[in-house]
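Troubleshooting: if your tokenizer reports a length mismatch, compare your output against this known-good record of 391 residues.
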Amino acid sequence: MVVTRSAPYAALTAAVCAAALLVPARSAVADGAAPTPSAPALRVIPSTMRDGRCTPASDTVAEAVPWAQRRLGLSRVRPLSEGAGVTVAVVDTGVSTREGLFLHRVTGESAGRDCIGHGTFVASLIAGRPSAGSGFSGVAPQARIVAVRGTGATGATDAATVAHGIRAAVDAGASVIHVSAALPRTSGALKEALSVAAGHDALVVASVAPDTARTSAASSAPEAYWPAASPSVIAVAPYDAEGETADGAEHAQLAAPGFGVAGRGPAGRGHYVGNGASVAAAFVSGTAALVRSHEPGLTAEQVAARLRTTAYPGTPLWLDPYAAVTTVLAPREARSAASPPPLALPEPTPAQSASTRRSRLLTATAAVTTLVVAGWLAVRRRQRRTSSGRA
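Known-good structure output:
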């Protein structure tokens, strides 16, 4: 079941109004044109292995700027931050290290091969570099990627595997950890891994539900999925080009483009199309990298708060990368734990209060007197000019 979100409408520009192109105000397009979905000819990237074979190569290039990039206004934020100096771990099926995709910005040893391609697709949304002949680019094209194996060979996973992946990401020095998996139950090992990540100031971003949850029956779904259900994790839901989200989105903290999204894959020069919460979470992970690069002094908790407070209102909130990067620190973020107490001024004594009242009364009297004299002089000057004219 798909739920249509209601949102206020706003005119983008005079030209857009003339064309009667109305989009939700939260998804106003910074580039000045209405977003359009990716071409349907793109090969779909799977999250698990199909028929025991690796995902075939794609040679279909997405030449136009994908709708998700336009919806998020990434061209506006790019001059301010590209994620340089930030390491993002992708806990998924692996990330292909093939030449040209990330320009040697991927490390991962055994996770450097990706038969299924889902991890590579997600990583491209986070930090894929622009290429000639295509409008596609990742959110933070200067960020480094750490490929962490978070699934088995077929793409299936469990709490123990994800926990191991999160710990490996922390050991690799990642300050942002993207987790594609959405598990129906947690474990002590997974909770401990999340605690370790928080202790190392690493921000974990995860899918609020499995990528197949858009058509799942609500009655068969658990109340929450892990690790997104953890309070220290940013849970992300997907929306499509029409602003529609899947069931379960109300449990997410943020929403981002997640259906019909174009990205790179494990083989070929072309692009693929991906769907689901893990795709949306990639945009949030990339935006977190932008913020951590632009404001390196912020903690993971402060970055998470900034992503939420600068998002467009709604349930869930809609990610706004430009606002997240450019917003001024809120008092709560800027306040130090050791801030001094407010300065206490002594109450005025009765004598001081009386003196103050007398001073104010004299000031007011002088002001009124000045106005009266000025008015009288103006009248006298006018009378003299009139008498001279008659003479």
